[in-house]
Amino acid sequence: SAVISQKPSRDICQRGTSLTIQCQVDSQVTMMFWYRQQPGQSLTLIATANQGSEATYESGFVIDKFPISRPNLTFSTLTVSNMSPEDSSIYLCSVGWDEQYFGPGTRLTVT
Amino acid sequence: EDQVTQSPEALRLQEGESSSLNCSYTVSGLRGLFWYRQDPGKGPEFLFTLYSAGEEKEKERLKATLTKKESFLHITAPKPEDSATYLCAVQVLGQTGANNLFFGTGTRLTVIP
Q1: Taking a C-beta distance cutoff of 8 angstroms, is the pair A68, A78 a contact?
Q2: How far is B97 from chain A (nearest CA, A)?
Q3: For A108, which residue in chain B has the nearest alpha carbon?
Q4: What pLDDT score was predicted for residue B99?
Q5: What one-character DSSP code corresponds to residue A59?
Q6: With a CB-CB cutoff of 8 Å, which residues 37-96 of chain A face chain B?
Q7: FRET label pair with B107: which of A69, A106, B6, B34, CA 20 to 30 Å apart?
Q8: How does residue A39 score in pLDDT terms, banded at 50, 70 and 90?
Q9: How far, in Å, CA of A49 to CA of A57, rounded?
Q10: Quick check: A41 and B9 in contact, CB under 8 A?
């Protein structure tokens, strides 16, 4: 397993602004994943971040809204852009292949 | 359409009162089924992987079982520290990786002392 940290742990943001979430892993990994967990809903994969290539986005998620960086094998960022209240959610990063190991999450509230 | 349904949504147990959580799935083919535990304010913590019908895995008071249509997470003599949300996820046959995991919405378990 891996130890994963995320920053910030929570934030309250105004509509129309952007927030960048950081994810740090204690070991080098090829792929990192970003999830969204909305209240009462299941975890939904946003995108897969590979080092040295463009992120791969799942259906319903686009790069303009959720740009991702992956500058090295232990770090990734997810930006939530031009936020609206519907973006209020918990955002999680994870690593692993089949079994996923998750960070503690970032709780985002958009007002 | 691939689908994962967990029941019940919430469960309250007295300490020591054993019970089971259900995860039923409809997928084109099952490669693996995963159970996670999620505490408030934390990310999901991996518990078990099951790959074939009839397989069982145990960890302390938890035992996970798998059939061709569903999985059960049995909790024997639960303690208050077992209180958490339990998530299951299925992975579709023929594909690997996180982009083929379908999560249920979870069962929120509360164990009362």
Answers
A1: yes
A2: 5
A3: B41
A4: 64
A5: T
A6: 40-45, 48, 56, 58, 92, 94, 96
A7: A106
A8: confident
A9: 9
A10: no
